[in-house]
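EI: anyone free to look at a 256-residue chain?
SC: sure, send it
EI:
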Amino acid sequence: MHAAEFKLSITKAFSEQLAAAIEALTPVPLTPDALGSLEAAPGVYQLHLNGSLVYIGKADRSLPRRLERHLRKLSSRSGMDVASVAFTCLYVEEDFSAVAPERLLISRHKDSGEVPWNYNGFGNNDPGKRRDKTLVEGDHFDRLFPIDLHWTLPDIPQGPTSLAKLLVWTKKALPYLFRYQDSSSFADIRLAAPVGASDVNQLLTAISEALPDIWQITALHGYVIMYPERSDYPSALRYYRDGQALEPYPGPSTGA
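SC: here you go
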């Protein structure tokens, strides 16, 4: 044969070079000090748990900011030793959105059973209210590492305050999502901030005591919600009603 057709695959070349570059890096612990040394630039990153590659992601603007969110999330999960989590990252300045560099890296590892967190809900934000009553499967990230309701909350506001202000503070302070239905009545409800409260469980208990009748706080495996209802959830970890922290009944429930 003296002639043949040649097709240049820019995507394949980019994928191979990208993989080689990030695989040449040595994972370091996911700590504030390590993140403080990073540039606020876009790129891709890998997370390792006990030496195994578990997640590949991207940061469109700032790698340290994105990784800080992961550190905060992982630090507030039961059964998770954040000291066992390490990361590597590459700054990718060029606009490669068309080839999705993180997807190229994921595709190189998924067939070998790596990057399980890319497929079990780790990277999700608020799943939306319609998913609140979905039964969380056993291999889901939130089932494996549920939220820690005894996570320490520093600097809980002290002294009389409105329920509205305390809820706003709580939403910002919690290391996981807190979604709630607002009410104009919250501004008129005064309460003494929970003196002596130091963790999420104690704070939510105090808030539930100040809520009007019918309202309920529900701690799910991955986040906390608050609505004017007394309803059971299939994946509830704990309910907060009338100043009491209540364990759910054994087994899934879909009662309303």
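EI: The longest strand covers residues 52-59.
SC: 👍
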